[in-house]
Structure to design on (307 residues):
């Protein structure tokens, strides 16, 4: 199925005053929405200060082998590596590194309101798949268009437009996202493409850049084709992605290694996001238990008051 979108009007721009029902409608129709002022400038500055050292020490995307693409198919694991970028840093472990991430990001009320609308009826509880700082240096080439749900084998079996979505991403701008410094490129409506629609990897006329000011966010479904743009500027481009999915799925990023004292400084909701609490599916059946008991009870887990 091919879906035609008016590029001049998408992604729609919303703020916290926009009715949540309208926001969800835009996400389901276009696959993405831009949120103005998702985080305030002071919070962005605190987050930047907490991650700066780790980003500076971090290495660029994983090296990949050079394949003769005309001679045969490139292994899928190498395709994944190419998506990491030779001049892009992926700084992970945010829940350990940043107090602002633990307190402000993981408890973001609007973010959770969106997740509840997307997942509640279909799946029940949800948790964090992963969270990264995405730092693009000048000279980084455009990333190929892809769907983040490709990490799930089950995504190949989604066939109908009304099949449930099982990943939603919140990409927050920590610096400006401009067309010349690698703003994320989105193909609105591509979450509705079925197997009959040939995938688009580079240079799509249907793609639009997500132009953002620091603190803005683009919220997009994992089934939407997207990719980081080319950084033709002299500035780095930095963002933070927080990926959420149903509790049914195993996250890409584990948080078992977090010291208990750090986890106990978090709210119950934030603890759930990093897998330190038992959750329920859409039928109120417990998921992620310790025997027949809740993880938090077995661990005698303390928590911070609601943030």
């Amino acid at each position: 199925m091919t879906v035609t979108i008016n590029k001049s009007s998408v992604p729609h721009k919303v703020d916290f005053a926009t009715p949540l029902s309208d926001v969800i409608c835009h996400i389901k129709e276009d696959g993405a929405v831009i949120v103005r002022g998702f985080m305030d400038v002071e919070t962005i500055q605190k987050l930047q200060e907490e991650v700066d050292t780790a980003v500076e020490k971090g290495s660029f995307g994983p090296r990949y082998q050079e394949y003769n693409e005309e001679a045969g198919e490139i292994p899928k694991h190498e395709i994944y590596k190419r998506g990491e970028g030779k001049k892009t840093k992926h700084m992970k472990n945010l829940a350990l590194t940043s107090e602002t991430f633990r307190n402000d990001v993981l408890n973001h009320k609007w973010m959770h309101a969106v997740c509840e609308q997307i997942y509640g009826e279909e799946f029940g509880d949800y948790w964090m798949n992963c969270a990264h700082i995405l730092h693009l240096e000048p000279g980084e080439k455009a990333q190929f268009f892809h769907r983040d749900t490709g990490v799930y084998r089950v995504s190949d079996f989604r066939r109908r437009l009304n099949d449930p979505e099982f990943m939603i991403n919140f990409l927050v701008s920590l610096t400006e996202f401009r067309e010349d410094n690698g703003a994320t490129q989105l193909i609105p409506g591509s979450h509705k493409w079925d197997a009959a629609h040939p995938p688009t990897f580079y240079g799509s006329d249907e793609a639009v850049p997500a132009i953002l000011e620091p603190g803005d966010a683009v919220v997009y479904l994992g089934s939407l084709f997207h990719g980081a743009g080319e950084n033709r500027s002299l500035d780095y481009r930095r963002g933070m992605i927080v990926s959420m999915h149903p509790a049914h799925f195993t996250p890409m990023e584990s948080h078992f290694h977090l010291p208990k004292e750090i986890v106990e400084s978090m709210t119950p909701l934030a603890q759930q996001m990093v897998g330190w609490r038992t959750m329920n599916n859409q039928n109120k059946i417990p998921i992620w238990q310790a025997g027949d008991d809740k993880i938090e009870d077995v661990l005698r887990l303390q928590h911070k008051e609601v943030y």
Observations:
- The domain at 7-259 is CATH 2.60.120.620 (Jelly Rolls).
- The first strand starts at residue 12 and ends at 14.
- The mean pLDDT is 89.
- The chain has one domain: 7-259.
